[in-house]
From TrEMBL:
GO biological process: proteolysis
A single GO molecular function term of this UniProt record: dipeptidase activity
Organism ancestry: Bacteria, Pseudomonadati, Bacteroidota, Bacteroidia, Bacteroidales
Pfam families, per database record: Peptidase_C69
Catalysed reactions, semicolon-separated: an L-aminoacyl-L-amino acid + H2O = 2 an L-alpha-amino acid
Alphabetized InterPro entries for the sequence: Peptidase_C69 (IPR005322)
Coiled coil: none
Gene3D superfamilies in the record: Penicillin V Acylase, Chain A
Record family assignment: Belongs to the peptidase C69 family.
Name of this chain's protein: Dipeptidase
Species this protein is from: Muribaculum intestinale
Keywords carried by this UniProt record: Dipeptidase, Hydrolase, Protease, Signal
Length: 546
């Protein structure tokens, strides 16, 4: 997904073999693949201009003839109006009161299939559906009915759709105005399996007579009519027909899912490296079995991946600099002596607006069926706080209108987390231990407190559950934001001017007996960096004693 910045031109960018400037990742763990039996989906809403905040809409009844405004989620442009149903459900971010959650990633696809006549864009499709559906299967029907009736106003998209019972991937692309609606296919992720998508269509061949696979009636024939496919129906490959399989789609996109699989499966995941690097051999499978059931914390840390301990590890080349920084500033590619090179695109990236891990639990009371573990800014340095599907208000630190991308607010979690992260980008290897200490302390405390509050809530009436959980979510959101502001101040003081101040304990700086600042540590640079400098400018810098 490319919130606020994406346009129909993304399809042309993919077709030209280049990366998009912004993109999203969604990982999936089906029931049976999780430690608590829940279904879990994740999302990183990545964009260079997206402000991280938590959207919400209350449940509502609607009079006959009442209309809903549809605005393009990226641009805010009015697309049209559609009739409201008699009742709409409450939503908190990308989850609704029934414990249904939806996330996405954009893959663009064939440029000629962008439809400028539709009025339902991919973002509106998510939030309208959350207002109208209770389950994943209802959501698939709602989404496909909406685009069939009103037209699909976006390019190729992958959606993660899950409730407490099951998790699905649905992939969709328009028809270029040749006929209304979209072509699409949806597959249920089998229980016990993990999956994911990251800006490239992941559904290849699929069974044509299987209740766990749904698709538009014309998905194959439309591809034939366009000249995208000419084989037998059983050999139809959705991704190869409608997406663009190039270096950007594989190394820049599928590689993120590959890394998730590699860290959590005992399968020989390396056998798909030829696919990731050169599109050789069989495509990477849609799902794999994890080595052990995954927890919420596992999924949170999966969203913090920089390809560590893989051939794409971003800390292991000179681009990481003297402080092993696992980030690369845009653009995604660069040219030296007429040769084009790439910067790796990891799951964790600097330009994230918000992210979440949605935990969907079928056996919990309605107020606790869905938990949106929500964070803002870079997934690597955020703090995930549980937003229960029943909360009645959004925490102030996440609330829309509390600052924006051009207006700093110290009450806004987005700005506070950027304050911390952007200091670390300069001296990562030195600062990240301090950040991890606070981040882990907060997330451990939040997890323990959440278990306690749920135990208390189980004995309350539904209305009291909602009040208790609302207060809990808001309290921990504000508390963690305040603690991260303190962390940012601490980093600023400790690492001022390239030095590292000594401490008597974490957060307590050492002073001389006279009360002055103790002489700091001169952290310098890494051995690799010094060797590079010596190789480049050694003769000029060599110390020569007369």
């Amino acid at each position: 997904m490319n919130l606020k910045t994406i346009s129909a031109a993304i399809a042309a960018i993919f077709a030209a073999g280049h990366f998009t400037a912004s993109a999203c990742t969604s990982l999936i763990a089906a029931p049976g693949a999780t430690a608590d039996g829940s279904a879990m989906i994740t999302y990183a809403a990545d964009s260079h201009t997206l402000y991280g905040e938590l959207y919400s809409t209350p449940a509502a009844d609607h009079a006959p003839g009442e209309m809903r405004e549809v605005r393009d989620w990226d641009t805010g442009r009015l697309l049209g109006h559609i009739p409201q149903p008699a009742h709409t459900y409450a939503t908190v971010g990308n989850i609704n009161e029934h414990g249904l959650a939806i996330s996405e990633s954009t893959w663009g696809g064939r440029e000629e299939l962008v439809d400028t006549t539709g009025i339902i864009d991919y973002g509106s499709l998510i939030y309208i559906t959350l207002e109208r559906a209770k389950t994943a299967r209802e959501a698939i029907k709602t989404m496909t009915d909406l685009v069939a009736e009103y037209g699909y106003a976006s390019e190729g998209e992958s959606f993660s759709i899950a409730d407490g019972n099951e998790a699905w991937i649905m992939e969709m692309i328009g028809k270029g105005g040749k006929s209304k609606g979209a072509v699409w296919v949806a597959r249920r992720i089998p229980d016990g399996m993990i999956s994911g998508h990251a800006n490239h269509a992941r559904i290849h061949t699929f069974p044509l007579n299987d209740p766990e696979t749904l698709y538009s009636p014309d998905v194959i024939n439309f591809a034939r009519s366009q000249g995208y496919f000419s084989g037998k129906d059983k050999d139809f490959d959705f991704s190869k027909a409608y997406a663009i399989t190039d270096f950007g789609a594989l190394r820049g996109c599928d590689a993120r899912v590959w890394s998730f699989f590699k860290k959590h499966s005992d399968d020989d995941i390396d056998r798909w490296l030829p696919w990731i690097n050169e599109a050789k051999g069989e495509p990477m499978p849609l799902w794999v079995k994890p080595a052990r059931p995954l927890s919420v914390r596992d999924m949170q840390w999966a969203m913090r991946d920089h390809f560590e301990d893989t051939p794409f590890d971003m800390t292991q080349d000179v681009g990481a600099g003297p402080f092993k920084v696992p980030y690369r500033w845009r653009p995604m590619t660069f040219t030296v002596d007429s040769v084009e090179y790439t910067n790796e695109r990891a799951i964790a990236t600097q330009q994230t607006g918000f992210s979440f891990v949605a935990q969907l639990r079928k056996d919990m009371p309605k107020a606790m069926k869905g938990v949106l573990w929500f964070g803002v800014d870079d997934t690597n340095t955020c703090v995930y706080v549980p937003m229960y599907c029943s909360i009645q208000r959004v925490p102030r630190c996440y609330a829309p209108g509390n600052g924006d991308m051009l207006t700093l607010s110290w009450d806004a979690a987005f700005w506070v987390h950027n304050y911390v992260a952007n200091q670390a980008y300069n001296r990562y290897s030195q600062m990240i231990p301090d950040i991890r200490r606070v981040q882990n302390e907060l997330e451990d405390n939040i997890a323990h407190a959440a278990a306690d509050i749920e135990s208390r809530a189980m004995h309350l009436a539904p209305a009291d559950q909602e009040r208790l959980l609302t207060e809990f979510s808001c309290t921990w959101a504000d508390r963690s934001t305040k603690r991260f502001k303190e962390l940012g101040d601490y980093l600023f003081v400790k690492y001022l001017d390239g030095n590292i101040k000594k401490e008597t304990a974490p957060g307590r700086f050492a002073r001389t007996p006279e009360g002055q600042c103790a002489s700091p540590v001169f952290g310098g640079y890494s051995e690799e960096y010094y060797r590079s400098v010596a190789k480049d400018a050694g003769e000029r810098l060599k110390v020569v004693n007369p």
